[in-house]
């Protein structure tokens, strides 16, 4: 019997925002390891695409260095704009890359506009698509990310899922079960890799806040920070928590802009809430690792806090990551001031503990690559 040959000769890895590259980095590490261990004749090529959906050159440069990945081969400079404008620009520019590179496979991650735009472009060029973090559902179609997830999954050839609820979601939507692979979580690959690196360097905490009790806050979703009344309710709940501990608030550019527009700057600074500039990943990781509590509307931070064992309040009405609620340290607290404060009072009475979900072990990228190379 002839040995099955690998038809994967060239792949494109697509990212559009910083969290995307945290998910791509383990795949790149796995590819490098694979290439170095096999005969050159059976090697394959890969290119990194940065759509430029969110882009700050200096921050991104540090980010690539921290993650130990090359700077992108292509920067599409998509920029901001409406969802339609941004998606259209990415599609047009990515099509040019695909026609030039002629890849066998496009790997997309997460749920940003770049994920959808590059998937649609690849599919119409008859290029196979692998979606990492497939099947996550919030059941809230007012979220642009939910639309991106549903459409990307519907047209993908490989659906790599982080938790078993995602398999149920995909089957319910009519996806072929042969395309679905439960592999674990690449975000956790990056988390564990970076933690190990910091431990080897004997860096265990952010020196500035060593010995300080603090909570970490991240807010970036338009539904939270674009609505003045809702944003004020969230901030007022933070001032209550700030009576017990310092609030460290690395501020997303969109969030900072609205803080200024709404006149919240003085209000925040007078209430033991310290605004920080966006942080490099390792610095942010150390901050979260040693926090008493994290309050966020981010998806990835719900997962990271679960693995780190840090109590997390998700300031949303829903989450596409239910395993962090069922097994992890995450609690869905909504966006109402009274509800957030109630959750905080309960947290003070009863500690929040959790377990690490299945296959969140730092080996997800290896499993993904093994599957792709068998096909």
Structure, described:
One of its GO terms (molecular function) is isomerase activity. A seven-stranded parallel beta sheet has the order 3-2-1-4-5-6-7, sandwiched between helices. Helix 4 (113-124) runs parallel beside helix 5 and helix 9 packs parallel to helix 15. It folds into two domains: 10-184 and 360-374, Glycogen Phosphorylase B (Rossmann fold), CATH 3.40.50.2000; 197-349, Glycogen Phosphorylase B (Rossmann fold). It is of the alpha/beta class and 375 residues long. The chain is built from 16 helices and 13 strands. The mean pLDDT is 93.
Quickly describe the structure.
The chain is of the alpha/beta class and 375 residues long. It has helices at residues 18-37, 57-67, 83-101, 113-124, 144-155, 164-172, 186-200, 222-225, 228-241, 253-261, 265-269, 281-289, 300-308, 323-326, 337-349, 364-374; strands at 10-15, 45-50, 74-75, 105-109, 128-132, 158-161, 180-182, 214-218, 246-250, 273-276, 293-296, 312-314, 330-332. The chain contains 16 helices and 13 strands.
Task: Note the topology.
Layout: E1 10-15, H1 18-37, E2 45-50, H2 57-67, E3 74-75, H3 83-101, E4 105-109, H4 113-124, E5 128-132, H5 144-155, E6 158-161, H6 164-172, E7 180-182, H7 186-200, E8 214-218, H8 222-225, H9 228-241, E9 246-250, H10 253-261, H11 265-269, E10 273-276, H12 281-289, E11 293-296, H13 300-308, E12 312-314, H14 323-326, E13 330-332, H15 337-349, H16 364-374
Parallel strand pairs: 1-2, 1-4, 2-3, 4-5, 5-6, 6-7, 8-9, 8-11, 9-10, 11-12, 12-13
Helix pairs in contact: 1-2, 1-7, 1-16, 3-4, 4-5, 9-15
């Amino acid at each position: 019997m002839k040995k099955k040959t690998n038809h994967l000769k060239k792949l494109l890895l697509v990212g559009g925002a910083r969290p995307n590259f945290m998910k791509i980095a383990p795949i790149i590490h796995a590819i490098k390891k694979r290439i170095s261990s096999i005969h050159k004749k059976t090697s394959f090529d890969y290119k990194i695409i940065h759509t430029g959906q969110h882009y700050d050159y200096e921050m991104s440069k540090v980010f690539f260095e921290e993650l130990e990945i090359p700077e992108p081969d292509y920067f599409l400079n998509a920029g901001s704009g409406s969802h339609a404008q941004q998606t259209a620009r990415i599609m047009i520019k990515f099509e040019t890359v695909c026609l030039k590179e002629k890849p066998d496979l496009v790997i997309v991650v997460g749920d940003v506009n770049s994920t959808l735009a590059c998937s649609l472009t690849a599919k119409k060029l008859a290029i196979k698509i692998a979606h990492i973090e497939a099947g996550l559902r919030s059941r809230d179609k007012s979220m642009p990310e939910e639309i991106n997830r549903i459409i990307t999954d519907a047209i993908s050839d490989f659906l790599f899922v982080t938790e078993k609820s995602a398999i149920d979601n995909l089957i319910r939507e009519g996806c072929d079960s042969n395309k679905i692979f439960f592999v674990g979580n690449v975000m956790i690959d990056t988390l564990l890799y970076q933690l190990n690196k910091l431990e080897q360097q004997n860096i265990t905490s952010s020196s500035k806040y060593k010995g300080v009790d603090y909570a970490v806050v991240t807010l970036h979703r338009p539904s939270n920070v674009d609505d003045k009344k809702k944003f004020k309710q969230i901030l007022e709940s933070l001032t209550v928590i700030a009576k017990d501990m310092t609030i460290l608030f690395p501020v997303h550019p969109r969030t900072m802009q609205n803080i200024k527009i709404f006149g919240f700057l003085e209000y925040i600074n007078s209430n033991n809430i310290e605004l920080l500039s966006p942080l490099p990943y390792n610095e942010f990781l150390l901050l979260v690792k040693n926090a008493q509590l994290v309050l966020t509307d981010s998806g990835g931070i719900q997962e990271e806090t679960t693995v780190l064992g840090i109590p997390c309040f998700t300031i949303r009405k829903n989450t596409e990551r239910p395993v962090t609620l069922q097994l992890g340290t995450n609690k869905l607290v909504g966006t109402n001031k009274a509800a957030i404060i109630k959750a905080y009072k309960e947290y003070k009475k009863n500690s929040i503990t959790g377990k690490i979900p299945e296959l969140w072990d730092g080996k997800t990228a290896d499993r993904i690559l093994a599957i792709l190379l068998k096909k």
